[in-house]
Design goal:
The protein is α/β, with parallel strands linked by helices. The protein has one domain: Response regulator (Rossmann fold, 3-Layer(aba) Sandwich). Helix content is 43%, strand content 19%. The protein contains five helices and five strands. β3, α3 and β4 form a beta-alpha-beta unit. The longest helix has 15 residues. The C terminus is likely disordered.
Length: 130
């Protein structure tokens, strides 16, 4: 079975790269993007199973990002985890509009993100190969 592929999107390259390092340390395949164009380019060649993205980014519309991510998967199962420096109550409308599968506050740390993604690994075993 292929390992779960994770795309991390954050307007802070430091945050995105730190998350990638933590995910890779857990045995996942991960890469990072910081713009919509970069995200869609990576989706076309990397075929991520999971999108982990910041909720509030200055040049990316969250709902459009999630819609385009799912469309790029061509019907394959995907998951979206949103994370933010804001409390869940503060970004509830964005979470709902993006049809996210999960939400974590950034203060919970990269380990919490990795644990959430790892929980998907069991489900990934039942996915058909790409």
């Amino acid at each position: 079975m292929d390992r779960v592929r994770v795309l991390v999107v954050d307007d802070s390259p430091f945050v995105a790269k730190a998350l990638v390092r933590v995910l890779e340390a857990r045995g996942l395949v991960a890469c990072a993007a910081s713009t919509m164009d970069e995200t869609m380019s990576i989706c076309a060649r990397f075929h991520p199973d999971v999108l982990v993205t910041d909720v509030c980014m200055p040049n990316i519309d969250l709902v459009d990002l999630c819609r385009r991510f799912r469309a790029a998967a061509n019907g394959q199962p995907t998951s979206v985890l949103l994370f933010s420096g804001h409390a869940e109550q503060e970004v509830r409308d964005q979470i709902w509009a993006a049809r996210a599968d999960g939400f974590l506050e950034k203060r919970q740390g990269a380990g919490a993100v990795a644990s959430w993604v790892e929980d998907l690994c069991g489900a990934a075993a039942s996915r058909p190969p790409r």
